[in-house]
Structure formats: C-alpha cells, structure tokens
Amino acid sequence: MSRDRGQVLFRFRPGQTFDHRAGYTAQVIQLGRDEEFDGPSLDRDHLVQEAMRFVRRWRAAGRAFVAGSDRAPEFPGDQDRLADRHYEVVVPGKVFCRIWPRVVRCSRAGCGHVWTASDPRPGTDDWPPACPACGGVVGNRQLQFVFAHKCGETSPMYPPSKCPRGHTRFRLDDRASRFLDFRWECMTCGFPLGVQWSCSNSSCSYPDKFMNPLLHSAGTAHVGHGLTLVNVTTTEEATRQSNPLYTAAVLGWWLGEITEDEFRRLTDGHTVDVPDEVVESIRVMEDAGLHDQARALRARFMPVEVDHLRDRVGKALGLDTGSDDARGLATELHTYRRVLNLKRLGVPRLQREARNPERLALYERYPGVLAAAGLSRDTCLVSDLPITYLAIGYSRTGFSPEEADLVPYRGRVSRSAPEKTLLYAHPTQAEALLFPVDRDRVSRWMVRNDLVSQRTLDDAGGVAQWLVHQLGPSNGQALSHEVRPAPGHPDLPVHELFGLLHSLSHQILRALAVDSGYSETSLSEYLFPYDLAFAVYPNGGSDFSLGAMRTVLEQNLDAVVSRAVDNDSCLYDPNCMITNEGADHGCLQLPETACQSWNRNLSRWHLFGSPDGSRVGYWDPTL
Fold first, then answer.
1. How far apart are CA 391 and CA 279, in angstroms?
2. Are the CB atoms for 19 and 214 separated by under 8 Å?
3. Tell me, what's the pLDDT at 539?
4. Peptide bond before 160: cis, by omega within 30 degrees of 0?
5. Which of 95, 97, 94 is nearest to 24 (CA)?
6. Which segments of 568-613 does DSSP mark as H helices, in order?
7. In 437-479, at which residue ranges do the beta strands (DSSP E only) sit?
8. CB within 8 A of 297, min separation 6: which ones?
9. Angle CA(487)–CA(489)–CA(491) in degrees, nearest 5?
10. What is the C-alpha separation between 197 and 160, in angstroms, rounded?
11. Rounded to the nearest 5°, which phi and psi values hold at 468?
C-alpha cells in the first residue's frame, strides 16, 4: 500500500471509486489486513462498543424521522446479545480494486456509442477496448456517471437493452446541465429514452426504488462514516474494564465519591467484607446528618462499600449502574481519566525545571494568561496521545439517517474465516496539547446568558454534573445539531455549551497553526464534552512526533493563547459577524480533516459576544 493509511480510509474505502493512475476508473472491493503492522495496540472491545453505539444512534435518529424504520438494516441487531462477536477490527495494509464501471463511451464525434464491456483479463486485454460499432480505439473512456440509491445500492449507468423498434445501440446525450434532461438516443432510428434505473436490492425497505444519477466521484456517491477515538489501551486498564464493578467505580470516581486509590482498589478486586453493624451505624449517622462521623467510620472500616457507592452514584446521575446506558457513560468518562494517566508535562513541572530565570519568569506568566482566557491551569502536553480513526460504514445519496441507510463493510479477514462486519482502524500516536476549560467561568457564562440558573448548577453539583444529567450516555456528537434549538427549548443550554467548547477549540487550533509549524489542515481537535476539555494534535498520519507541540508549551504558550483571545475579526466582517454569527471560512471554520464535528455549532458570539450586546462572550472582561 503506497498511500498513507489515513488517506486510504478517507478516499479508498470499499465501495468507493477513484481515478486510477493507470488512466481508468476503479472501485475498491476490499481492504486487506496489514500483517506487518507494528504500531500502537488497540483496545478491540472499546472500538467495537463505540461502533455499536454509533449504529444505535443512527438507527434511533432514523426512527425519529420515520417511525418503525431501520436505517442500518445490514448491521447486527441491537437486541442481539452476541452482536459484538459479529465485528472484526482490521488495520488495513492492502487495497484491492477492480475496473468499474465497465460502461464505455466511444470517443469518435460521429459515433459516441455507449456499451458494456467485458471484464478485462489482466495483462491480456486492452483497456478501454475498441468500439464495437465503429472499431475506434483511441480516446475511448469509461462513462463517469453511475446510479445510487439511499439504501446503499449502486449501479453503472447501463444503456437500454433496446428501443421500441428493437435497435440495440445507443449514445448518451448529456449536453444538458441537469441529469433530469439527459437522454439515451438510439443510433439507428434516433428514438430518445429517459435515463433512469430502479434499485434491485432485495433487502431495500424504501418504497421509492428510483436511483439517483451521480458523477462517480460526487461527494454523495460514497459518504464514509466513522469515529475519531482516543484509544488508550493497557493490560491493566483492560482488566479493570472487565471488572463487574467497573461502571460504579468510574462514575463514583468522576463524581468525587471515591479517590483514585479507592478506584484502583475497587477495580483491582481489592474489596473487604464489612460487618453489618458497621454498615448500619454509618447509615444511621448519615440519616442523622452526622456526615463527618460517618465519613470517618467509613474510612476506617470500609474503604469502598460497593452497595453504598452504587446507591450514591444512582441517585446523583439518575441511572441504574447495571444498565447499558450507565456503562456507556462510564466508558466515555473513563477515556478522559485514561488520558490523565498518560505521561504529561504541565506548567508546574516547567516551573520546577526551568533552566534559567528568564524561562522561570515566562512559565510564571502562563497561569495568569490561561486563567484570563478561561482555560484551566492544568493545561498540559500529552506526549503520546493514542488516536484511532475507526471507519464504520458508508451511505449513498445522503449524509444523515434522515437521508440514507448506513451500510457496513462486510468481508472475511482470511479465506477460512466467517464473513463479518469489518471495522477499519487507523491507530496513531501524537503529542497533543490538552486544554481543560475553567468550569467556574463556564458556569458564569451560562448564567449571564440566561441559559441556566446558578441554583440549578449548584443543585446538580456543578456544570459538569449538570451536563451529564442533560445528556445521558451520549458521546458528545448529539450536542452538535444542525440548527440551534428555539429559545425555551430544553436542549438549548446544552447546544450552546457545546458550541462554546467547540468554538474555543477551533480558535486555539487556529492560533496554534501560527506557532507550531503545522498548518490548519495538519492539526485536528478532539473534544471531551463531558469533561469540558479539548485536545489539539497533529494529524499527519505518522507514528512519530517532531516535538512541535512541546516546543509551543516550553516557549510560547502565552503568545498562542493571547493570539486566540485577541483575534476577534474575520476577513468577511461585518457580514460574517452579523449574518453567520461569526463562523465561516475566514474565521472559525476549519478543513474537514481538522474538525471533529463537521464545523457545526460554531460562533464567535460564544467567545466575543453578539454585535447587539444581547449575548455575553466567554472572553468578556466583565465575566
């Protein structure tokens, strides 16, 4: 495979067509496993579970649009308890393709015959072949148009078998600017026929079988869907995740009910039997309001009492800790915890290890600059952030469940293996700058913009806990809606909070592109919405780092953050700020390789306030 794996999963997925360097159009039929892959290890169970959650969300969105529909019919069913066994994670290393479509057009102006050619024999048959009508060879080429259906079916644009008078040779009149006006023309009698095709997929559930004509390379001819995941995998963490107490332990740790040491003891299986009378005494003390005494007794006799922990977690989050929803939420929250356990370089260490007084003075400025920008002093460098892009499936003629089905990649990883649903993974490691935001400032921003009351946040235990209550076990993608909910809609506060986090991430990424040596297209974001944090990392697809992000942290993090805060204008202002809420290609919008959420829910209003003053920006000095 001569191309980078990341490029393959962007442009050369199974079912996609591309212009081959040999001069013909080809279709990828399968990706082979990279038998020599020696890169970062993969947490297979985590990847499969995330893919299954993606499919469940796609189905749920489809049912919300059409009741009773299944917009992912070829994926394993949601009710199948063994569904995860039907998936196989493959790190691709080979691309297998074929000449497709085999519909060829004669290049001679007086001919133009379109016919279906035989599959060429490699090394034997010429391609494209000679025209069967006039014998012309030079300049013949494949027809660049295909048919696609929203169920995922695709077909070449075959010419009709015959006209009403029995003639069998046709040319395509495609001089019109719309596919609707294309016509097949009989070369013998000139009889015109419409250009149309019907879906022949026996499992297609759509009543409308009409297939859409498309250019084979059109964006909607093959829409790849997948996830970018932080995939931290160690034997120790995998063992913890298999522990039946894992869900309660993660949620309890996140809520502050247990410490990091207690989390480790609990998930390592180091629990103790506590006498019933001690448990009862602790509960009586808590009911009587003697919380300090109950806490002291608990610390002495029962470092972690499982039933009590489950009860506290269930009440705090409104979830049954044994449910799939709770486990999905725990998996999402545990991802950030795993990142925090990676090797990191933060501001306190920089200050301790400063080489000279000038560097120490620089590092002592960092906390103030970060605080002024509403970023946490825990901003740090993660040396080897494990990022995995997971290709899950594709759709045709549409981008969303409202428009099309999600279709899986099916195949065998070896000749003797059973056919499975294949997930293609591209694991890399890259240094990343991790930016947690200031939760107190976020709370003030939400209150000032009348999104939520301070009392509501206090009752929930803080803005992060409030967000979990609002979201439930989602992965953050549900936060990024196409259109802002109407005023008063219950989803509006969450939508605006995600918009703030997303806009902060883009603004910092743009500033980093100036000082890191990477362009905007070479950087990507990763959002941790539950933990109100984001990371920026190089997406070059290489498994090594040149140290550019560390250099930024060590030399000019203050300049990067200040540039993000000061850069409040756009090339297209004032139109952009007024009509687009300050989000277009001249400011916040980034290349698709850089943005995790398709440039949705971005606004400079979140950062700098609205022109009419009705909305307070996160970087407003009065905040």
1. 49
2. no
3. 84
4. no
5. 97
6. 575-579, 604-608
7. none
8. 278, 281, 282, 285
9. 120
10. 10
11. -60, -40
Return the closest-CA partner of residue 247 out of 319, 304, 339, 336. Answer: 319
- Paired tokens of 407: 């279709």
Cα–Cα distance, 500 to 98 (Å, whole number): 46
For residue range 313-336, what is the model confidence (pLDDT) as tens digits?
A: 888 888 888 887 788 788 888 888
Query: Exposed (0-12), middle (13-18) or buried (19+): which is 194, by Cβ within 10 Å?
Result: exposed
Which runs of consecutive H residues, i.e. helices, occur in 13-43? none
In the chain, count of helices (H) and strands (E)? 19, 20
Answer yes or no: are the C-beta atoms of 380 and 534 closer than 8 Å. Answer: no
Distance CA 144, CA 346 (A): 54
For residue 31, give the nearest of 7, 57, 61, 55 by alpha carbon: 7
Helix (H, G, I), strand (E, B) or coil at 147: strand
Helix (H) or strand (E) holding 94: strand 92-99
Is omega for the bond preceding 487 within 30 degrees of 0, making it cis?
no
Q: Which residues contact 353 (CB under 8 A, 6 or more apart)?
A: none
Continuous H helices in 353-460 = 357-372, 439-448, 454-460
The pLDDT > 70 percentage for the chain reads 93
Distance from C-alpha of 167 to C-alpha of 150, rounded to nearest angstrom: 32
* 87, 465 contact by CB (below 8 A): no
pLDDT tens string 84-139 = 889 999 999 999 999 999 999 999 999 999 999 999 988 788 899 999 999 999 99
- Round to whole Å and give the CA distance between 571 and 583: 11
Partner residues linked to 436 by β-bridges? 533
Contact 182, 195 (CB under 8 A): yes
Give 153-204 pLDDT, tens digit per residue. Answer: 999 999 999 999 999 999 999 999 999 999 999 999 999 999 999 999 998 9
The span from the CA of 124 to the CA of 106, in Å, is 21
From CA 506, how far away is CA 441, in angstroms rounded? 19
Q: Which two structure tokens, joined as six digits, stand for 544?
A: 């090594």
Q: Which residue has tokens 């979830």?
A: 319
Here the contacts of 445-451 (C-beta below 8 Å, separation 24 or greater) are 445/374, 445/500, 445/616, 445/618, 445/623, 446/493, 446/496, 446/497, 448/616, 448/623, 449/496, 449/615, 449/616, 451/492, 451/493, 451/496, 451/497
Specify the pairing of strand 92-99 against strand 344-346. Answer: unpaired
- For residue 33, the cross-strand partners are 92
Residue 211 CA, chain-centre distance (Å), reads: 29
CA distance 502 to 496: 10
Q: Which residues pair with 198 in a beta bridge?
A: 210
